[in-house]
Design brief:
The complex is a heterodimer. Chain A is of the alpha+beta class. Chain A contains 14 helices and 14 strands. Chain A starts with 13 loop residues before the first strand and ends with a helix. The chains are: A alpha+beta, B alpha+beta.
């Protein structure tokens, strides 16, 4: 265990920022939070003060034990008060690096660095670091990941980590610094549009729930002292005005939520890394190497489809794969821009084809015909064979067969295909179906003598209605449409009038237009 | 004793054997039995405390228990002591780990036997943790993390002096790439 007593810059493990014990609760402090609340309820202020002192002492102890070090392409984090732990994170396994600055962090000039590997617990959270040092460490981690730092340059990496934001590479090895390439920049108007058409519309539910809880505690002001009887015209005007105000408040909340979470959104491509900056009060920056992009998802809600807008989600296999807040999202994008962004974000991917709805016949059929077929058709007769698998009540557990069980002392449960007697002519005991519409093969028209051998191939069997035991087939009432996500988008030639994203400054025209033409031609054929 | 090198394997050891130990399944460090016993003993003590507290509460509430006072706590203590003495030995006897050329294989389990093989190239990173008991006994635990969320490859009972070496051996075999 190394002793981190003010190491020389670039060597040895380092501690986090001295403000970390106050700014960020470690695991132990978080564990003591609930008992602290109980103590506050039970014991009052003196107990609370004692609890605060204990938690603070533990936080300082945890801070003094927690060190980090980047050397030789490996991030090494040690710490722990009760259970000591050592983490070694190879930089090449890093999926995503986040730099989070909440409002309190911004006021104090510090930041939280989150390093995400694949898997749930394979990551590290360094809270908190000085802003400059966090940026330098992020740059070093990504540089080490890119492999620009050779195996023999472990010292250089460490020096870069220590020297701060000054220089990443060594002085003798000038590094190629790629210029940032803006992919998507969103202004407040566009963010407002995103809020009005997106899931932020549901924010008001949270606000109302909180207000109701709070108001329930405080008691609502009574309306009894107001005279609610108003003259008719004025009352109608007031009602309309109230409804309008409520709608305006609702949309305003959505807009505010969108702008708060995504204000100043900028998605840039630096070399082969995607950088996202967003957040009006809490700044969040995420860096994903392009090679770590696992999936790009394009969503369009109904109002966005109507307006020709989509939203993008760029998934990496980072630790918080489930948490939407840590994923890289483009909250709103004109549908015509998707191909351009895709070409940059997922190079080599084909542009989106023109997706089509199912033909109207399929829609009508899914509404009318399929639901009718199941209840209108007679219940399966007791001799239902075939797709139902083995006949469960057959004494030998053998398959049902028209014409009865094999006779003549054949030992094989199922006669050989060629030498078996032709079915249909003879009626076995089990093949007598009481239903006129029975689909059992025994009721099929008897095949000619030169017909196919028994058992028939699957294609000659009558198509059964969906049965719950047939397993692999979809029930007919699910329709053939599937999910309606993304089934329609505007052609790329008609850009949305609502969004204007900056035109690319690099000449990618040949690349892009060639693809676009191919895609459009393909869509036209289809 | 060095758990990476089996006792009696010192004769014609090659360079790699001197570093990684001989091939074949290896047992854990013998002191791991005592680490487990300490953990189980702590749980038994907690159980006794709960039993005593329950009896006190019942007596305070005026409930008449059909057994003599203290019998429940004594039964818990006896059972806990027996389990804490016997189970770690059984678990230790069942534990084997092996560094094969391509995988890290862990065999464990008293009632249900687990045999997990973790390919080296799927290893994301490795944590080393030391609980207080393990620190007192000079042991470490290796936690091998893979990209799967459910994988819980814990390798206890590695001498603290060898844990980092074993980790480096495994990490050296992971190769490059993101191992997803």
């Amino acid at each position: 265990m190394a002793t981190p007593s003010e190491p020389a810059p670039g060597e040895g493990p380092r501690r986090l920022h001295p403000l970390s014990p106050v700014l960020d609760l470690s695991g132990l402090g978080r564990a003591l939070l609930a008992p602290g609340a109980v103590a506050l309820g039970a014991g009052g202020l003196r107990l609370l003060a004692l609890g605060v002192v204990v938690v603070l002492a533990l936080q300082v102890l945890a801070w003094s034990r927690r060190t980090y070090q980047l050397a030789g392409g490996v991030l090494r984090i040690e710490g722990g008060v009760v259970v000591r732990s050592q983490q070694l994170l190879p930089c090449e396994r890093i999926q995503q690096v986040n730099l989070v600055q909440k409002l309190r962090h911004r006021a104090l000039g510090v930041a939280v660095l989150e390093v995400e590997g694949a898997g749930r617990e394979s990551g590290a959270r360094l809270a908190v670091l000085e802003r400059g040092r966090a940026e330098a460490l992020r740059a070093d981690l990504l540089a080490a990941k890119r492999g620009t730092v050779g195996p023999g340059a472990g010292e250089a990496t460490g020096a870069g980590a220590g020297a701060g934001a000054g220089g990443v590479g060594g002085p003798e090895a000038p590094e190629w610094v790629p210029t940032p390439w803006p992919v998507v920049t969103l202004g407040y108007r566009q963010l407002a549009l995103a809020g009005v058409t997106g899931v932020e519309l549901l924010v008001f539910l949270t606000v109302i729930t909180t207000a109701v809880q709070f108001g329930g505690d405080r008691g609502w002001p009574s309306l009894d002292r107001f005279d609610l009887r108003l003259p008719g015209a004025l009352g109608a005007v007031l009602v309309v005005a109230g409804v309008l105000a409520a709608v305006a408040l609702w949309l305003g909340m959505a807009v505010a939520a969108s702008i708060l979470s995504d204000g100043g959104f900028r998605l840039t491509l630096v070399g082969d890394e995607l950088h996202v900056q967003r957040g009006l009060l809490d700044r969040k920056e995420a860096s994903v190497p392009l090679a770590r992009v696992q999936a790009v998802r394009i969503d369009a809600s109904a109002p966005r489809r109507a307006l020709g807008l989509v939203s993008l989600r760029i998934d990496s296999a980072g630790a918080g794969s489930g948490e939407d807040d840590r994923r890289v999202r483009v909250p709103i994008l004109a549908a015509g821009e998707v191909d351009r962004v895709l070409a940059l974000v997922a190079p080599g991917s084909a542009p989106l084809p023109t997706l089509r709805s199912p033909p109207p016949v399929a829609r009508r059929r899914s509404v009318v015909r399929h639901p009718c077929r199941w209840p209108c058709s007679p219940p399966p007769p007791p001799c239902w064979p075939g797709r139902w698998g083995r006949w469960p009540w057959s004494p030998s557990g053998r398959r049902w067969r028209p014409g009865g069980r094999p006779t003549g002392g054949s030992a094989t449960p199922w006669p050989a295909t060629t030498s078996s007697p032709a079915p249909g002519g003879s009626t076995g005991a089990w093949s007598r179906c009481p239903w006129p519409g029975c689909r059992a093969p025994g009721h099929a028209p008897p095949p000619s003598s030169a017909g196919p051998a028994w058992p028939p191939s699957r294609s000659t069997w009558p198509a059964p209605a969906w049965s719950p035991r047939s397993g692999t087939r979809r029930p007919p009432w699910s329709g053939s449409c599937g999910r309606r996500r993304c089934t329609r988008r505007r052609p790329a030639t008609a850009p949305s009038p609502f969004l204007v994203t900056p035109a690319p400054q690099r000449s990618r025209s040949d690349h892009k237009s060639g693809r676009g033409r191919a895609g459009r031609a393909g869509g036209g054929r289809a | 004793m060095d758990p990476l090198v089996r006792p009696g394997a010192g004769g014609g050891a090659t360079a790699s054997e001197a570093k990684e130990g001989p091939p074949g399944p290896r047992p854990l460090h013998p002191r791991q039995v005592w680490a487990w016993r300490c953990g189980w003993g702590a749980m038994a003590v907690a159980g006794v405390v709960v039993a005593v507290a329950g009896e006190v509460v019942l007596a305070g509430a005026g409930v008449d228990v059909p057994w003599p006072s203290g019998a429940a706590a004594a039964a818990v203590a006896l059972a806990g002591a027996g389990l804490a003495w016997r189970l770690p030995r059984l678990a230790y006897d069942a534990w084997r780990y092996e560094l094969t050329p391509t995988t890290l294989e862990l065999q464990r389990g008293v009632v249900v036997r687990h045999h997990s093989a973790i390919p080296y190239f799927r290893v994301q990173h490795i944590d080393i943790t030391r609980s207080p008991f393990e620190r007192a006994l000079g042991l470490s635990q290796l936690v091998v993390r893979t990209a799967a969320a459910t994988t819980d490859a814990r390798l206890p009972g590695i001498a603290a002096s060898d844990a980092e070496r074993l980790r480096d051996v495994i990490l050296a075999r992971t190769g490059r790439g993101d191992a997803v």
